[in-house]
Write the C-alpha cells for this entry.
Amino acid sequence: MRILRWLPGRLFSAVIVLLGASLLIFAAGRSLPGDYANTVLGPLSSEEARVELRESFGFDRSLPEQYVLWLRNALEGDFGLSLASQRPVREEIASRLPITALLAAMGMVLTIAIGVPLGVYAGCHVADGRRSAATRIVSTIGISLPEFVVGSVVVFLFSHFDFGLTVGTFVSPAEDFGAGIVSLLLPALVMAIPCIAATARATRNAVIDVLVEPHIAAAIARGETPGFIIRHHVLRNALIPVLTLTAIIMAYLLGGAIIVERVFNVPGLGSYLVLALGRRDYPVIQAVVLLTTAIFVLMSLLVDILTGIIDPRVAVTKAGPGA
Amino acid sequence: MSPIIDIENVTIEYPGNGARVLALDGATLRVDAGETVGLVGESGSGKTTLGLLAGRLLPRSARVTGGQLRIDGQDVLALDDQRLRALRRECLGYIPQDPVAALDPTMRIGRQLELVLHGLPSDTASLRHHLDSVQISEPDRVLRLFPHEISGGMAQRVMIAMAMARTPRLLVADEPTASLDSHVRTEVTKLIFNLAAKAGATVLWLSHDLRSVSRWCERVVVMYGGKVMEDGPAAQVLRHPTHPYTIALAASDPARAEPGQRIGTRPFDPAASGTEMPSAKLAVGGGR
Amino acid sequence: MTALTPMARRRGPVARAWAYVASFDGFTRAAIYVLAALIIAALLGSWFGLGGSPTDIVGRRLQPPSLAFPVGTDNLGRSVLPRLLAGVTTTLLLSAAAVVLAALIATISGIMAGYYGGRIGGTIMRIGDILCAFPAIVLAILVAAVVGPGSIAALASIVLVTVPLMTRMVGQAARQVAQREFITSAIISGVGTRTLMIRHILPNVAGTIAIQGTYALSVAILVEGGLSFLGYGVQVPHASLGLLVQEGAVYMVKAPWLILAPGAILVIAILAINLIGDSLRDRFDPREARSLT
C-alpha cells in the first residue's frame, strides 16, 4: 500500500502533537492557584482526608510522575472528580459528548452539502466580472459572520416572530432523535455559515485551478461532456484542497459549538466548559480541553489519510494537523 | 473524395493588451484523407491555433472573424455542442505536448483508459490490448500506476493509445516529443506514424523543427504570422525553399551548420513581407 | 510593491498613501474607507468625548434610538453611542496590539525556521503544530482559566491563536527566499547572518507578513469577541464589541438595537479587514504562483 509509506510518520507526528498539547494542558492545570484538596473537600475538612485525597490523585509525587498518572488515567477515561459536583467528570462528559459530536457533525454535513455544490457551480460558471465580484462579496460576508452575533440575532428573530421553529428549547437526541436533530438544526446552521462560505470559496478556486489543467483540456478534446468531466475529473482533483480545509473547519466547528451551545442553551461539552470556567472547575476544564484537542487531532489525521487516498502524489509526511 | 481538413482563409483574433492580436490571418489549408502533413512554424506562428481550430478547441477569448472551416465534411463552426463532441470523439485524436500533465493525476492509468473507452469493451484484456498496441511491455503493471509514477515516454504511449482507441480519421499531434527525452523521441514518433498508417488516419504534425518533420511527413506546410507561407512535398520544401522565411528556417537548422559556423537567426524581415507579428525568437531545430 | 513613478516619489507621504489606496478595486477601497471611518469615530469618541460619556447614566432605561441618543440607551440608562465607540476602541486597540505582538514573534521565529531549517526549524514548526491542535476558542478558554478573565486573557489568547499560522506562512516564504541565488551569493560574499535576515530575507517576506497580519486582525476581533461574549474577555465597566453583544443579547426582545448595533459594527469591521486581506493576497501572491507545483 502506498499509504504505508507516509502513514507511520504522520501517526508519529500526531502522537507528538497530542503529547505536547496534553503537557500544555497539564501545565496549565498545575499553574493554577489554590490547593486541590482544599477546594474539593472544603476548608473544614480534616488534614487526614486532605492527605488521603492528595495521595489518591498522586499530588504527593513529583510533577513528571503526576503528569504520567494524569495522562494514563485520562487515556482510560478517568478525568478525576469535578470540583463543583464532586462526581466523576467522566459521567458528565459521557452524557454531553454525544450532543456536541452530533452538533459538530451536523455543522460539517451542512458545510459540505451546501458549500461544495455552491463552489462547484461558481467555479464552473466563472462568467463576467460583475458576477464574480458578487460571488466574492457574498462569500466574504459569509466568512465574516461570527456565530455569537448571528446566533443572538437568530434567537431574537425566532423568539420575536413565529417561524414554526422554537429556539432555546433543547430536545435530547437520546430521547427523541428526530426532534433532537430539529432542535440542533438552527445552532448547527448558525455556526456552519462561515464554514459554508469558506468551503464554497475554496471549492470555487480549486475548480478554477483544475479547469485550466491540461488533463481537462485533453478530456474536452476527446469529446467528453461537461457533466462527465466534472464528475470524473474536476470533482476528484478539486476535492484535494477542499479536504485540507475541512480539518480547519473541524476546529472551527468544535470551537463554534462552545459559543453556539451557550447562545441556544444546548447542554453539550461546550456549555460544560464555559460553566466549569465560571466555577474554576479545573479538572473539568482540563478534561474537556484535552478531549476537544484529541478529537480535532484525530479528525485531521483522518482528513490526511483521506487526502492520501484521493491524491496519490502525497508522499511527504505532513507535519501536524490542519497543515 | 472530400478533403478531411478544408480551412479557407480563416482569421482568428485574440484580445491583446490594447490591440487585438491576430492568431490566424487568412490561413488556408486543404488536407486529403491519409496524408501526413507537417505544420512548421515558430511559437506564435499560428500552428497551434490551427491545430486547435480543427476541433474548435480554441480558448473562449478567441474569435473567428472570417473564413470557412470544414473537418471531415462538417462545418465545425456551425455545429451544436452535441455534434461537436461527437466529431471530437469519433473523428479527431489529439496527442498533447506534455503527456504527463494531460493525464488525470488522481487516477490510475487503467481507470483513465477505461473512462476513455466508455461505450467500447473495457475489460482488462482490452485495456491490456490497447497498451500492447503502443508497445508498452508490462501492460498489467502500468495499468495499476498513477501518472506521476511513469516516464514521459510511457505517458505519451498511453496518450497515443487513448487517442487511437476510437480509430480517429484525423490525428493532431502538437510537438508530441518536445517534452520527452531525446532517446525515446524517434521511437514515439515512429509509433505514431505507424499506428496512423495502419488505421488510415490523417496526421497533422505540428512542430518548429523543419528538418525532423520532413523526415516523417510527406508534405510540409510552413506558417508565419498566422499565414501559410509555403506548402509542398517535404523534400522539395526542404531542399528548395522558395519563401524567404522558409529559407531562413532551413538555414537555421543546426544540423546543417558546419562546426564553428554561427547559426543564422532569422535574416528574414517580416516588415518587408508585410506581415505584422510580435518579434519572437526563432526556435532552432532539435527542440528545446 | 507598485512601482512608483518619479512624480509620485516627489509627493508627500499622504499623497502617496492616497495613491496606494486608489490603486485598489472598488470593494477594497470602500473597505479601507469604512475601516478608517470606524477608527476615526472611535478615536473621536474616546479622546474628545464624541457622543457623550460611555459610563454616565443620562436617561431612562432601554430608550429606542432618538435624536438625543442616536443608538438608544441601555439597561442602566447609559447612552449606547459612546459605549459603542468605546467598545470599538477597545476591540481594535486590543486586537491591533495583539496582532503586532504576534507578527513580531511570528516574523522572528518564521525567518529563523525558514533560514535554518533542520532541527531549529523543525522545533519551531512543531511548537506551532501543538498550538494549532487547539480550536481557537478552546485555547482562549484555557488561557482565561490560567490568567483569569480580562483583557490580558484576550490579548494572550489572540497571540497564541494567530502566531502558529503566521509563523508557518512566514517560514514557508522565508524558506523560498533562502533558497534563491542572491542569498547564496550574499553568504559567499561574507554577509553576516543577522544582516542577511534583516536586509535580505525580511523585505522579501514583508508581503506575507502584511497578508497574514491582516487576516490575523480579523481572527483577533473574532477571538476577543467570542471570549468577551462568553464573559471571560474584556470585563465591565469597560466595553468591547463582544461584551456589548453579550449585554445586548439579554435585552434582545425589548431593545434589539442593543445587540444589532454592536453586532453590525463587528461584522462590518471583520468584513472590511477580510476584503483588504484578499486584495493584499491577490497583489502579493498572484494566482499563477499557486499552480507552480
User: Anything to note?
Assistant: The domain at 6-59+69-284 of chain C is CATH 1.10.3720.10 (MetI-like fold). The radius of gyration of chain C is 22 Å. Chain C has a mean pLDDT of 85. Chain C has one domain: 6-59+69-284.
